[in-house]
Specification:
By secondary structure, the chain is of the alpha+beta class. It has helices spanning 7-20, 48-55, 71-86, 126-137, 140-154, and strands at 26-31, 36-40, 95-99, 102-109, 112-119. The protein is globular. One of its GO terms (biological process) is regulation of TOR signaling.
Amino acid sequence: MEEPSTAQPLILQYYNRLINMRLLSQVVVSDKQGKTILCCFGEPQPSRSDADSELSGGGGNDGEEDMPIESNVVLSGVSTFQMLDQLHLGAPKYISAQYRDTVVVQTMDDTVMLTLIGHRSQGHFVGGLLALLPQMKSNRAYEDLINQVKACFAY
């Protein structure tokens, strides 16, 4: 079995920190086909009842109820980027979408698509997610992750 790369734990810590600061709700990094490379929901903050149940041996729910998987959002973004590529319209810097309460910003870097997900009810909006993109893309761990994915597609 392969050892985990060093880029993933660093990038997970970075994305989880942004989520825990409530700057966004979820980050998904996927390849051009929409296969998830990593997905961050933030580190679950134990509530008072979770802490009590862990002390009594209950184990808590590990925050699974609060972690929806947004695979349909990722696949929708992938198909949009693919369609624009097939029509030779050029790739946009980003695409944005809104699904009820959810706001989404997606960007494609060579072989990696970065999806930022927020919720209007939590104060997130497209402009705020767009403001995070340059900072997130300039992170060294993100660059390492892109290089690792490129290496996988090179073979």
